[in-house]
Amino acid sequence: QCAGQRDENHLPYCSGYCCLASLKQAKYIREADPEAKAFIIYDHMRTMGIYENFYKTLQDDPGVFLTKGKVVEVSEGEDGKVKVIVDETLLGEKLEINVDLVVLAIGMVPVTAEEPVLNLEYRQGPGLPTDELELFYGYADSNYVCFPYETRRTGIYAAGAIHQPMTIAQAIEDARGAALKAIQCLVAIEEGHAVHPRTWDFAYPEFDLKMCTQCKRCTEECPFGALNEDEAGNPLPNITRCRRCGTCFGACPQRIINFKDYSIEMVGNMIKATEMPEQGYGLYRLMAFVCENDALPALDMAAYQKKNIPVSFRIIPVRCLGAVNVSFVKDAMSKGYDGILLLGCKYGENYQCHFIKGSELANRRMENVAETLQQLALEQERVTLHTVAIDEVEEAVKKLNEFNEEMKGFEENPFKGW
């Protein structure tokens, strides 16, 4: 039992279903031959919910022996049997068991871990992305918090054992959910609007290719493979794949990508619309680009709860931190803002970004932000990035207040009044 699982050299995770499978096979043996005996050596025993009753049934069976321990040796025994040595048992001593057959309850590995399985025409490859984030051990990655069935290939939904380890009953239930999401996707495409998470968004990215330098940043950074390239190297959008996250919008150094309802000019006007106090009065103005998926709802809840949010902040919602173009930072600092806070979804091991890697991309772009601040002769600390979950209301407010206090340690932005 637990053969090779929770093992850094094999499978670092627990498949969860093996315990029940071992118990089931032991029951089959006992039913087929009442004189037979079954030994189950386990590291952990997981039988959740009503399956605990099944586990207790096997515990009461006099022909089924269960013990916690580690198998340290399997060798040839007497009379053609197999000798098994078990250590670290609950009894605190080694056990020697002679059996006719040894079965390893190995873990579950998805077919997508080694083979693409699908034959998709994406510049990133024919299969589902699995290993780029290095979080899912070959299983189809998904945002389990909000979108448990979606993959990074629009219209393809993961279910069953390529989604995560599960039993047959769980896989059937999982498939029902995935099928319903697929139906929703078909309806959305027929009606011409976006699917999750910006459902009913009819806008899509438009490219002014006359200014395109073929830098490929938009095509490489798109988390959903919605952009290919034509023969000239220009971005070639596939609208039905697009999730309207705006990552391409934030990636483009030429600022040639816009949505009808979300453009470079629109955000620029929001930045410039703030009345900026004259320098010397000690009135700081701070800008916060806030992700609309997690950070903004957290701040909304903070306002509803009448939390203390610094009045110095001007908040601009963005589709994703990946949609924050470096030009926004330059425009804001040139306008006279004393500091800029990027507040988005969590990334990394506990990532919750609705668009997979928006916050991570924003963090990578901080190097470009540092260069921009250096050109303006301003301190790098004036622009920083933090992440919060949607339920971390106190943490979101704390980040704003801490940044507000930190900025008071700097001189006012010398561009005020210009």
From TrEMBL:
<keyword id="KW-0479">Metal-binding</keyword>
<dbReference type="GO" id="GO:0016491">
    <property type="term" value="F:oxidoreductase activity"/>
</dbReference>
<dbReference type="InterPro" id="IPR003813">
    <property type="entry name" value="MvhD/FlpD"/>
</dbReference>
<dbReference type="InterPro" id="IPR036188">
    <property type="entry name" value="FAD/NAD-bd_sf"/>
</dbReference>
<dbReference type="InterPro" id="IPR039650">
    <property type="entry name" value="HdrA-like"/>
</dbReference>
<feature type="coiled-coil region">
    <location>
        <begin position="359"/>
        <end position="413"/>
    </location>
</feature>
<dbReference type="Pfam" id="PF02662">
    <property type="entry name" value="FlpD"/>
</dbReference>
<protein>
    <submittedName>
        <fullName>Hydrogenase iron-sulfur subunit</fullName>
    </submittedName>
</protein>
<keyword id="KW-0408">Iron</keyword>
<dbReference type="GO" id="GO:0046872">
    <property type="term" value="F:metal ion binding"/>
</dbReference>
<keyword id="KW-0175">Coiled coil</keyword>
<dbReference type="GO" id="GO:0051539">
    <property type="term" value="F:4 iron, 4 sulfur cluster binding"/>
</dbReference>
<feature type="domain" description="4Fe-4S ferredoxin-type">
    <location>
        <begin position="203"/>
        <end position="232"/>
    </location>
</feature>
<keyword id="KW-0004">4Fe-4S</keyword>
<keyword id="KW-0285">Flavoprotein</keyword>
<dbReference type="Pfam" id="PF13187">
    <property type="entry name" value="Fer4_9"/>
</dbReference>
<dbReference type="InterPro" id="IPR017896">
    <property type="entry name" value="4Fe4S_Fe-S-bd"/>
</dbReference>
<keyword id="KW-0411">Iron-sulfur</keyword>
<dbReference type="InterPro" id="IPR017900">
    <property type="entry name" value="4Fe4S_Fe_S_CS"/>
</dbReference>
<comment type="similarity">
    <text>Belongs to the HdrA family.</text>
</comment>
<feature type="domain" description="4Fe-4S ferredoxin-type">
    <location>
        <begin position="233"/>
        <end position="262"/>
    </location>
</feature>
<keyword id="KW-0274">FAD</keyword>
<keyword id="KW-0560">Oxidoreductase</keyword>
